[in-house]
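Much of what follows relies on a compact textual record of a protein's fold. Each token is a code from a learned vocabulary of local backbone shapes. The record below shows the convention in full.
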Amino acid sequence: MNWKPSCKTGGARFSYSGVVASTQVFLKMFRLGPDWKKKQLQFDPADFQHTTSTDMSTNIRYGSLNITGKNVTVRWDADDLTFTVTGSYGL
């Protein structure tokens, strides 16, 4: 997360792309059952942080940047074994 003028309004966008070794790794990472076959997930920010066991914030000079949007979206491409996480962040 980097400072941008749109952070003041909570509209700065982030995106993270990753590759996993197998579908089972992706399912385990997002705590999904083996019968999950969709291409997209949506979490609210608190659920996303709980599911991934991460603190999605960073300190800046006079505050901190956090996930601010309604949803964090995870898109899954089973053919390439890649996923993309997108959302918004700000003060």
